[in-house]
């Protein structure tokens, strides 16, 4: 993507911070007043035209949240958050579905261009091309609606979902892909059945907060036996000042269904910290498979550690059915603070959980991330590959739990966490919890911490590659196992992202 | 933290606190020591740690330490046979040091009671390291005796020294101090055992000065109804080395803490451990290893066998300070979980602030490999025997690394005993 290269060059030239999504889009928006109370929650619920039960659900969550204490066990430190000093709702004005390119706010369009969302999708986003029509950009334009490489996008701007593409085409296959607000209105039976069934309202402090005030997010339902014809994707963007973003994602794969979903996140560069507390719930029934990938690139703060997003996220997948599979892949390069443990509950017999993670921290970033694999069913297996890279003055912690319950016969886990340290002002930490209560369980865990060896660096540099690029090259080799798990379209972008995140870490 | 404020003390906590007022007059120490004991008691009054405290995540002491027996001042504890025949035995029997024998050349022996009485101990002495240092606090409040050994500069002890902390039920709280001066060399054996229902605690301070080498063997073989709280702390000087071997086989509730600071450049720490867990034992080994100087090397290997309703815990934390470049630290914890009623939890942590290091840890939990079993059974060995052989081989591997033939033989004999008892 030439635009990306150009940005990199520009950043290099001005030699300041390396964040390339730090622009702000000047779009008129509607803001709820600052603060959090029952009225605000009713306001959000009313804005979303939610049914009464949903409002009650939120209020209940709010009550529980008030009784909870902020967790302090993670290896991150930050000044106390004033939850009353945030806007809990912000929405771009005039966003009633663009019909043609002229109707799309040019600023919004630019935003997506800058975000580097593939052109084809921009076309869709902008509404120039009708959904379901083959694009000129398609290599093989045909009536095959299941052509690979297409991505349906749900774009979430601050508190609301702006547009969802490919809806009709997905509907043909029976797949529901829409914003969660829409799902609450259109598919209440599914929401009532599944929302909060994996991450209960009072699961933890931030999950309770999210349950009370979540404003939007994506909803995916893949019916029995359907293989979702394309990649689904959501782009989250925090744009407005002093807002918290609380999105909620719910993905349900019915018996034998398959879906691959990707989320990307960015935010403008600001001096103050912004809060992002999301909840993601995945449910895989018998023989179903969900693949969930994240490229998280929230604004990490400047080189002095000022500003940046606080990313406190609860992600959990429930392999509810037999032979089901959930796979998490994450590339974490952004956020001032990350607190995130995508987990799998392996309830169904023969179910499988996977977690592939790359966490890159630079500057003053703090990451405390990892996974949980809870083996409950028989013959369940899980695999964890975590690669942490710390540079600058950052702290990068892997925290994970693997447990086999008494009845989890033949539970199998393999965990590998490797950390790479660049520079001597950073820290890398590993805190795994391994708990076996069944004799037939077989758990293996290994972790290593090292730096890029001088031999490796010398080998690459003597071929005329500058040091910074050489490091990026070696790092990309280090993270290869995880990159391979990403959908192809995003693997390239993720690789570049890692390179950019590490810029300025040498010397 | 108000989170941990406990309004009402449990029965065991009350027994501990009340025990102090009745025991106080019999405890040795000058005014300074009394102040420290009182401080320790204040901590106990705040209640024992629960699993909400990270260091006690898998051992909820408040719940597990349900009974605190009374002291039995007149009980008759007897010294046990030494692990190695020619060792100098220094026993602490029912809380009182009984060995007054002269040691081998280069060794000065004093009793801890005398040292406490003399006073002039450094400030951190008898002080719990933090609010949740329950082992340190209980021991500081109640410690009655023990030994204080000084090994002279450059001395190589001609025979091993065996320290014994033996109870005959009730409560015993012992403490050992060993200062190995520069360039000295010694083998020390520590025994923790007894007969009957007991609460035993023991704290060891080992100082390995520059260029000194210490081989320490800790055998914890408490009876099935005893609770044992142990804390082993060591500080390593420049170019010094410490090899620590720990065998846990017994006890109802066992917490063995190991805190080692590699302070001197080029120091080396080697920890080998075997936990043989059967019956209903709950055994927790918690290690914190600080690499505080450059070029330090450490390797830790634990092998655990879990049978019956036993529950094992290993928490191992390796911390590498910013200054400790070129640290080489490796930790492994391998568990054979042989029973569905048993459990094993491990938490091998790395906390690294230096970039030029090679650190790693591995942890496994599994049953015996089917292939291995098949290999033996294909040779006509019945399953039970084959399993026994494999389990023994699994732990023997760690012992065989110890290099000292006499010690290896003596330890292997203990394995045979344990397996004979636990099938």
SSE string of chain B, helices as H and strands as E: HHHEEEHHEEEEEEEEEEEEEEEEHHH
The total count of strands of chain A amounts to 25
The biggest sheet of chain B amounts to:
10 strands, mixed
How large, in whole angstroms, is the Cα Rg of chain B? 21 Å
| Beta-strand proportion of chain B | 35-45%
Output mean pLDDT of chain B.
Answer: 92
Number of domains of chain B: 2
Q: What is the structural class of chain A?
A: alpha/beta
Note the main attributes of this structure.
heterodimer; A: 507 residues; alpha/beta; 10-stranded mixed beta sheet; globular; disordered N terminus; B: 423 residues; 2 domains; 9-stranded mixed beta sheet; 8 helices; 19 strands; 39% strand; Fe-S cluster assembly protein SufD (chain B); Fe-S_cluster_assembly_SufBD (chain B); SufBD_N (chain B); SUF_FeS_clus_asmbl_SufBD_sf (chain B)
Can you offer a commentary on this structure?
The complex is a heterodimer of chains A (507) and B (423). With 507 residues, chain A is an alpha/beta fold. Chain A has a domain of 303 residues. In chain A, 24% of the residues lie in helices and 33% in strands. Chain A contains 13 helices and 25 strands. Chain A has a ten-stranded mixed β-sheet with strand order 4-3-7-10-13-15-18-21-23-25. In chain A, a hairpin with a 2-residue loop joins β3 and β4. The relative contact order of chain A is 0.10. Chain B is an alpha/beta fold. Chain B has two domains: 303 residues, no CATH class; 54 residues, no CATH class. Chain B is built from eight helices and 19 strands. In chain B, the strands form two sheets. Chain B has a ten-stranded mixed β-sheet with strand order 2-1-5-7-9-11-13-15-17-19, with helices on one face. In chain B, strands 3-4-6-8-10-12-14-16-18 form a nine-stranded mixed β-sheet. In chain B, a hairpin with a 2-residue loop joins β1 and β2. The N and C termini of chain B lie far apart (46 Å).
């Amino acid at each position: 993507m030439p635009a990306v290269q150009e940005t990199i060059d520009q950043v290099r030239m001005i030699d300041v911070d390396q964040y390339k999504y730090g622009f702000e889009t000047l779009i008129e928006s509607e803001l709820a007043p600052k603060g959090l109370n029952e009225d605000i929650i009713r306001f959000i619920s009313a804005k979303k035209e939610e049914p009464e039960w949903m409002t009650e659900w939120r209020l209940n969550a709010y009550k529980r949240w008030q009784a909870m204490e902020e967790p302090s066990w993670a290896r991150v430190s930050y000044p106390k958050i004033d939850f009353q000093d945030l806007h809990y709702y912000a929405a771009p004005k005039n966003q009633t579905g663009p019909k043609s390119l002229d109707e799309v706010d040019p600023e919004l369009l630019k935003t997506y261009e800058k975000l580097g969302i593939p052109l084809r999708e921009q076309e869709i986003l902008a509404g120039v091309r009708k959904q379901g029509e083959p694009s000129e950009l398609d290599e093989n334009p045909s009536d095959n609606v299941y052509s690979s490489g297409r991505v349906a996008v749900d774009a979430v701007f601050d508190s609301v979902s702006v547009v969802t593409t490919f809806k009709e085409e997905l509907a043909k296959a029976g797949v529901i892909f829409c914003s969660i607000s829409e799902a609450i209105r259109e598919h209440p039976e599914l929401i009532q059945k599944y929302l909060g069934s994996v991450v209960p309202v009072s699961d933890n402090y931030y999950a309770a907060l999210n349950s009370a005030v979540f404003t939007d997010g994506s909803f995916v339902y893949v019916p029995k036996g359907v293989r979702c014809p394309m990649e689904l994707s959501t782009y989250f963007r925090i744009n407005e000042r002093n807002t918290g973003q609380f999105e909620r994602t719910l993905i349900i794969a019915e018996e034998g269904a398959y879906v691959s979903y990707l989320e990307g996140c960015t935010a403008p560069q600001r001096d103050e910290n912004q809060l992002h507390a999301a909840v993601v719930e995945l449910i895989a029934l018998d023989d179903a498979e969900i693949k969930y990938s994240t490229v998280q690139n929230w604004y990490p703060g400047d080189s002095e550690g000022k500003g940046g997003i606080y990313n406190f996220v609860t992600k959990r997948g429930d392999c509810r059915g037999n032979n089901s599979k959930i796979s998490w892949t994450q590339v974490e390069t952004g956020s001032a603070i990350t607190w995130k443990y995508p987990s799998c509950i392996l309830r169904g017999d023969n179910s499988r959980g996977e977690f592939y993670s790359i966490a890159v921290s630079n500057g003053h970033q703090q990451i405390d991330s990892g996974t949980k694999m809870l083996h409950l069913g028989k013959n369940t297996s899980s695999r964890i590959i975590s690669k942490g890279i710390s540079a600058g003055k950052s702290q990068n912690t892997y925290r994970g739990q693997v447990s086999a319950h008494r009845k989890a016969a033949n539970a199998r886990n393999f965990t590998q966490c490797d950390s790479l340290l660049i520079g001597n002002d950073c820290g890398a930490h590993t805190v795994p919890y391994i708990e076996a209560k069944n004799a037939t369980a077989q758990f293996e865990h290994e972790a290593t911490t090292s730096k890029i060896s001088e031999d490796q660096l010398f080998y690459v540099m003597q071929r005329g590659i500058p040091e910074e690029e050489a490091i990026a090259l070696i790092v990309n080799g280090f993270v290869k196992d995880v990159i391979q798990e990403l959908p192809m379209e995003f693997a390239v972008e993720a690789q570049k992202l890692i390179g950019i995140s590490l810029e300025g870490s040498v010397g | 933290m108000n989170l941990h404020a406990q309004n009402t003390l449990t029965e065991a906590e009350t027994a501990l606190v009340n025990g102090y007022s009745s025991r106080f007059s019999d405890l040795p120490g000058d005014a300074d020591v009394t102040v420290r004991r009182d401080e320790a008691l204040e901590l106990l009054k705040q209640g024992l740690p629960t699993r909400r405290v990270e260091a006690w995540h898998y051992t909820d002491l408040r719940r597990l330490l349900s009974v605190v027996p009374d002291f039995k001042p007149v009980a008759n504890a007897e010294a046990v046979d030494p692990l190695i025949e020619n060792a100098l035995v220094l026993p602490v029997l029912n809380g009182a040091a009984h060995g007054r024998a002269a040691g081998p050349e280069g060794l000065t022996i004093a009793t801890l009671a005398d040292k406490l009485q003399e006073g002039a101990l450094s400030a951190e002495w008898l002080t719990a390291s933090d609010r949740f240092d329950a082992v340190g606090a209980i021991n500081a409040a109640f410690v009655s005796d023990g030994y204080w050994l000084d090994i002279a500069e450059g001395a190589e002890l001609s025979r091993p020294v065996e320290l014994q902390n033996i109870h005959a039920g009730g409560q015993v709280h012992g403490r050992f101090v060993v200062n190995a001066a520069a360039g000295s060399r010694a083998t020390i054996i520590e025994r923790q055992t007894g007969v009957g229902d007991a609460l035993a605690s023991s704290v060891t301070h080992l100082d390995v000065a520059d260029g000194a080498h210490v081989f320490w063997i800790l055998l914890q073989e408490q009876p099935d109804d005893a609770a044992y709280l142990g804390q082993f702390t060591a500080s390593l000087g420049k170019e010094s080395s410490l090899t620590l071997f720990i065998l846990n086989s017994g006890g109802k509730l066992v917490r063995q803490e190991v805190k080692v600071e590699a302070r001197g450049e080029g120091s080396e720490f080697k920890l080998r451990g075997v936990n043989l867990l059967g019956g209903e034992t709950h055994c927790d080994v918690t290690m914190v290893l600080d690499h505080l100087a450059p070029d330090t090397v450490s390797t830790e290997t634990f092998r655990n066998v879990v049978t019956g309703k036993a529950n094992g815990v290993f928490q191992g934390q390796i911390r590498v300070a910013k200054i400790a470049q070129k640290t080489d630290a490796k930790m492994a914890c391998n568990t054979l979980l042989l029973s569905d009623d048993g459990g094993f939890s491990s938490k091998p942590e790395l906390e690294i602030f230096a970039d030029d290091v090679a650190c790693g840890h591995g942890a496994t939990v599994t049953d015996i490999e089917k292939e291995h079993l098949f290999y033996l059974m294909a040779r006509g060995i019945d399953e039970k025997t084959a399993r026994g052989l494999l389990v023994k081989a699994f732990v023997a591997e760690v012992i065989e690394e110890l290099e000292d033939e006499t010690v290896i033989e003596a330890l292997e004999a203990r394995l045979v005993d344990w397996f004979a008892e636990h099938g």
